[in-house]
Amino acid sequence: MTAPDTGRTQPEVERVAVTDEAAALLRELRETHGPLMFHQSGGCCDGSSPMCYPDGEFRVGGADVHLGDLDIGEAGSVPVWMSRSQFELWSHTHLTIDVVDGRGSGFSLEAPTGRRFLIRSRLMSDEEAERL
């Protein structure tokens, strides 16, 4: 049995979200650094952490996938990118950017704050997977 056509389109499947706490830190970082972006590259150590940059400072291209934009309130949105090779492994997951106490290493903008961004993931539901 198929669902009736109501003339409504299904909402796009959300691939990425942000916690309230991470959104608050992003608003603070935006005040200092201007528009922001995330890139998730994969790899070992901090290479697997989401890296926050001033928007455009990390050059994305054909080897990257735009996962979506994080709504951080009145401060706007923050695009999230992932390397295509990493996306091939994580395409069936929903990612949430969160923040925890502790200092990561690397060039991510939150490093001096004593906090670090991290990814929490879950498998997409059957319904989400069908709508992809």
CATH topology label? Hypothetical Protein Aq_1857, Chain: A
Report the β-strand fraction as a percent range: 25-35%
How is the largest sheet built, in terms of strand order?
3-2-5-4
> What is the end-to-end distance?
20 Å
Oligomeric assembly: single chain
Protein name: DUF779 domain-containing protein
InterPro entries: DUF779
Pfam family, one: DUF779
Describe the structure.
- There is one protein chain.
- This protein has 132 residues and is of the alpha/beta class.
- It has one domain (16-131): Hypothetical Protein Aq_1857, Chain: A (Sandwich).
- The chain has three helices and seven strands; from the N terminus they run E-H-E-E-E-E-H-E-E-H.
- The strands form two sheets. It has a four-stranded mixed sheet with strand order 3-2-5-4. Strands 1-6-7 form a three-stranded mixed sheet.
- A hairpin with a 5-residue loop joins strand 4 (64-71) and strand 5.
- The relative contact order is 0.23.
